[in-house]
């Protein structure tokens, strides 16, 4: 069965103010950046916007700027640019590495930072064609009333599977958001909610304008496991960063792919002069396993994803500490 695109009106604003006006004039409109996720959802009948607002012509979303406070990366910056910017690779290595693991190379020439951070959650019962979902009576996340993953519950458990969020979180990133009331900032780790059907703390008339990163100085890394090594979402993705700015050492760890939101793990703290020993790595393994909560949202067993998240964290911690 073909999945033809339905009709919709297309708005092409040139400024953030014009986006605000377009959103006000067309409630329920969908934002489109690179379109690598949104167009797939529209084609599969997972979104049916009357109006699509194309963000690709807005100059303000497209810059990477250094200031005394750190780095500001526009939401419309493409992932290949993040991967190839030497300053990002030097000061925020986990971010460059995470960008390089998203989908395939041609895909990354259009996929954007904002689209990656606002990516819809995913589930094996949801990311299917309309007729497949219809034959399963749809599900709680869209058009149905039962969750096929946890039928006794009343909450969607679909997993957030964007690669960039944890890499930014271990570098204390904040989002600049524009809305009808003006601009606001929010820490990236506060932007996500543990609900697969409504996982973003973003108002219906708000957009992400940019990501702000404080000055560099943290060594960091990102790794993920996936079914197809060439092109695939993370079954579990982990970012780690070593913070030497205070007394002793702090290891910051964030995980994606296992919950409806990317999440920070309680950091590992080493007092001044202390070395990381096996007890430290065992504690990290335990913390990650306890914090994550993978569900049957992929064809790969939740327990394997839990163990993998912990193993990736420990593997990188051994290299960084
Ligand atoms: C085959 C395939 C493989 C993929 N593999 C991966 C992968 O390995 N890792 C991964 O992380 N992703 C993957 N993706 C998903 C997606 O391609 C990327 O996450 C990409 O970065 C999304 O960016 P985009 O600009 O194309 O977003 P779009 O599709 O344009 O938008 C995605 C969502 O973000 C919203 N949005 C976009 N910009 C803004 C903004 N500025 N403010 C508020 N909301 C906004 C849109 O409304 C939409 O809901 C894959 C997709 C495909 C089709
Ligand atoms: S977790 Fe449940 S409600 Fe959410 S998409 Fe999957 S089946 Fe649907």
Describe, in plain words, how this protein is organized in 3D.
The chain is α+β, with helices and mostly antiparallel strands. Helices cover 28% and strands 22% of the residues. The chain contains eleven helices and twelve strands. Strands 4-5-8-6-7 form a five-stranded antiparallel beta sheet. Strand 10 and strand 11 form a beta hairpin. Helix 10 runs antiparallel to helix 11. The longest helix is centred in the C-terminal third of the chain and has 19 residues. It is globular, with a radius of gyration of 20 Å. The structure holds flavin-adenine dinucleotide and iron/sulfur cluster. Flavin-adenine dinucleotide binds next to strand 2, helix 2, helix 7 and strand 8.
Q: What structural keywords apply?
A:
321 residues, alpha+beta, Uridine Diphospho-n-acetylenolpyruvylglucosamine Reductase, domain 2, Enolase-like, domain 1, four-stranded antiparallel beta sheet, binds flavin-adenine dinucleotide, binds iron/sulfur cluster
């Amino acid at each position: 069965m073909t999945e033809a695109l339905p009709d919709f009106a297309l708005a092409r604003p040139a400024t953030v103010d014009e986006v605000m006006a377009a959103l006000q004039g067309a409630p329920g409109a969908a934002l489109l950046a690179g379109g690598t996720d949104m167009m797939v959802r529209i084609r599969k009948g997972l979104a049916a916007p009357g109006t699509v607002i194309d963000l690709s012509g807005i100059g303000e979303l497209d810059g990477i700027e250094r200031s005394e406070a750190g780095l500001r990366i526009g939401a419309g910056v493409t992932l290949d640019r993040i991967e190839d910017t030497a300053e990002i690779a030097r000061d925020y290595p986990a971010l460059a590495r995470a960008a390089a693991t998203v989908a395939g190379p041609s895909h990354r020439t259009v996929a954007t930072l904002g689209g990656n951070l606002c990516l819809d959650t995913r589930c094996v019962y949801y990311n299917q064609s309309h007729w497949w979902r219809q034959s399963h009576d749809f599900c709680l996340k869209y058009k149905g009333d039962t969750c096929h993953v946890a039928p006794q519950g009343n909450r969607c458990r679909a997993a957030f599977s964007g690669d960039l969020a944890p890499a930014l979180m271990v570098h204390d990133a904040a989002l600049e958001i524009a809305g009808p009331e003006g601009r606001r900032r929010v820490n990236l780790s506060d932007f996500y909610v543990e609900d697969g059907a409504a996982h973003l703390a973003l108002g219906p008339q708000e957009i992400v304008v940019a990501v702000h990163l404080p000055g560099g100085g943290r060594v960091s890394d990102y790794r993920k496991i996936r079914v197809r090594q060439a092109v695939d979402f993370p079954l579990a993705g982990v970012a780690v960063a070593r913070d030497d700015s205070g007394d002793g050492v702090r290891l910051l760890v964030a995980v994606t792919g296992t919950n409806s939101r990317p999440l920070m793990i309680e950091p590992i703290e080493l007092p001044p002069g202390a070395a990381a020993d096996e007890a430290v790595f065992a504690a990290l393994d335990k913390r990650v396993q306890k914090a994550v909560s993978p569900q049957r949202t992929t064809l790969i067993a939740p327990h394997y994803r839990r163990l993998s998240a912990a193993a990736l964290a420990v593997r990188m911690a051994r290299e960084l500490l």
